[in-house]
Amino acid sequence: MEHAKKIAAILLEKQAVTLNIDAPYTYASGIRSPIYCDNRRLIFYPDARRTISAAFCEEVKPFAPDVIAGTATSAISWAAWVADAFDKPMVYIRKAAKGYGKQQLIEGGSIEGKTVVVLEDLVSTGGSSLNAVQACQDAGARVLAMIAIFTYQFAEVMPKFVDANCQFGFLCNFSTLIEVAEERRLFAPEKLAIAREWNRDPQNWGPSHGFPNEAK
Ligand SMILES: O=P(O)(O)OC[C@H]1O[C@H](OP(=O)(O)OP(=O)(O)O)[C@H](O)[C@@H]1O
Ligand SMILES: O=C(O)c1cc(=O)[nH]c(=O)[nH]1
After folding, report:
1. Which residues line ligand 1 (CB under 6 A)?
2. Structural domain count of the chain
3. Mutate to test the pocket of ligand 1, among 36, 74, 213 (most ligand atoms within 8 A of CB)
4. How far is CA 175 from CA 5, 50, 172, 192, in A?
5. Is 83 a domain residue?
6. Where do the annotations place 5-phospho-alpha-D-ribose 1-diphosphate binding (predicted)?
7. I need a surface site. Which of 24, 46, 118, 127 has the fewest CB within 10 A?
8. Domain span holding position 183
9. Is 19 in the pocket of ligand 2 (CB under 6 A)?
10. Ligand whose nearest atom lies closest to the CA of 19
């Protein structure tokens, strides 16, 4: 990925990436991890925003979708900037249908019969992004691709997207992030080694280090 090192540098410079070995983070899926990548921080910085939006646009362009979709909440702003750049309609996809009002799962407008590219800020297990893809398909759209700023490269993710008949794209991944962090000597080498160890077996790292995964 040509964007990968540039985006990794941004994630590190804006301190989106943090390590906590003693009190590992709990992810949306319930798994425990010594590393967290808080891409929500990136919207705060106009320079980061411009670079990441431009990278998203490069990846989205070949698909020429009718609609740009963002997953709630973290990818809503990215979808808005990208949709604006292409002068295309935008929707966002809730994690669950709203329990009152119009009870919608997808907000913005109808995507029935449209081609869609879904944007996501981060993929760990892929559960959230695949739910969003499924929601768009259930609404009658053809989802051409799901593109995330960052992926942890969990082995199970690619086959799930193949099954969903949806291309999977990303701007940066775990290997590149760790490579750039090492080059820049931003974290103690032993902490980065633990992050690598976690990434080799993320489901079992927590339980085997005294941090049970949480049921979600
Ligand atoms: O690939 P997964 O295992 O599903 O995990 C990744 C998801 O978790 C985070 O969302 P979170 O649930 O924290 O919600 P937010 O975007 O509203 O902050 C992140 O923004 C992804 O959507
Ligand atoms: O899987 C998650 O919930 C998750 C991991 C991560 O590093 N950052 C994030 O925002 N969510």
Report:
1. 27-29, 71-74, 120-129
2. 1
3. 74
4. 10, 24, 9, 11
5. yes
6. 94-95, 98, 120-128
7. 46
8. 4-202
9. no
10. 2
